[in-house]
Amino acid sequence: MYPYRQGVEDRELHGLNGQALGGVAIGIILFARAGGGLPPGSVENALTFDYPVLFQPIKAASVKAVVSPTLDPEVLSQLIEAGLYLEQQGCRAIIGACGYFVNYLPEVVKKLHKPCFFSSLMQIPLILNCLRPEQKIGILCADGSVLQSAPALKNCGVDDTSRIVIAGAEVLPEMKKILADSGSHNPKTLENELVELGRDMVEREPDIGALLLECTLFPTHAWAIQQALKLPTFDFATLIDWVHSSVVRRQYPGYM
After folding, report:
1. pLDDT over 70 for what percent of the chain?
2. Per-residue pLDDT, 145
3. Exposed, middle or buried by CB within 10 Å (0-12, 13-18, 19+), for 103?
4. What value, to the nearest 5°, has the Cα angle with vertex 12 and ends 10 and 14?
5. Tens digits of per-residue pLDDT, 37-82?
6. What is the tens place of the pLDDT at every residue in 109-134?
7. Within 10 Å of residue 94's Cβ, how many Cβ atoms?
8. Contacts of 105 (CB under 8 A, 6+ apart)
C-alpha cells in the first residue's frame, strides 16, 4: 500500500528545473534491451513493486559490456547521465538494475546527489553481522567468474571473502541464453536450475546460514529457492524495499 499523505500540503511547492512528473521516489537504471524476458519479480518489471518506480534505460549497457571485470567508459558516462535525470524527476534513491553496475559505483556517487544502490551484494555486511561467526553467505550470481575477478565485492564493503560462497549461474543452460543476449528464456526452467544450483551449494557448504541472489531476474525465483533450502533469502527486491522504506517514511496513526 502506498504511504498516502494525510491532507493537502500547506507550504509552497517548487518543482525542479526540468521535472515532468512527481510521486516517484525510486529511480531504476536499466539495460536498453532485455536479454531474456522480464517476468514479475525481476527488478525491470514494475509489477514487482508495491510503489511507483521510474525506469531509465541506457543504450551503452548490455550483458557483454556490464557483466565484465572491465569498466566501459561509455557505460559510466551514461550511468551518471541517467542518475542525474532520475534525480531531476524527484527520485530520492537510484537503483542500478544489474548487480555488476556496482563496479562503477565509486565513480557514479561522486557525481550524483542522492544515494545509489547498484547491487544486491551491498547487503552482505549486514547479513554477515546477523549470522554466527562460523556461518557463511551463499551467493547465487549471474556469472561467478566475473564476480570473483571484478571489484564488485570490494565496492560493496566486502574485503574478507572467507565467509562468502559463490555459485555462478553461468553454467546453467537457461542462464547461458540470457548471458548470450538471446532475447528469451523459460522462467520455470531457470527456476528449477537455480534451485538445484542452490541445493548443491548448500550441500557442499553446510555452514551457509543465508542466501543472497545477485541477479535482477532472481527475485522471481526467491520464493521457490527459499522453499527448497529453508534459509533466509535476500535479493534485489529486499534491498529496494528497504531503501524505499527509508526514503518514504509512513505515518503511524492511532491514539495513546
Report:
1. 96
2. 86
3. buried
4. 135
5. 789 999 999 999 999 999 999 998 888 888 888 889 999 999 999 9
6. 999 999 999 999 999 999 999 999 99
7. 27
8. 96, 116, 118, 119, 155
* Residue 139, helix vs strand vs coil: strand
Alpha-helical regions (H) of 9-52? none
Rama region for 54: left / alpha / beta (φ>0; ψ in -120 to 50; rest): beta
Please name every residue paired with 67 in a beta bridge, in sequence order, or none if there are none: none
Tens of pLDDT, residues 191-227: 999 999 999 999 999 999 999 999 999 999 999 999 9
User: Does 141 score more than 60 pLDDT?
Assistant: yes
Give the separation between CA 99 and CA 103, rounded to whole angstroms: 9
pTM: 0.92
Residue 244 burial (CB < 10 Å; 0-12/13-18/19+)?
buried
Find residue 30's DSSP bridge partners: 57
In one-letter notation, the amino acid at residue 239 is L
CB 79 within 8 Å of CB 59: no
- Residue 130 corresponds to which amino acid? C
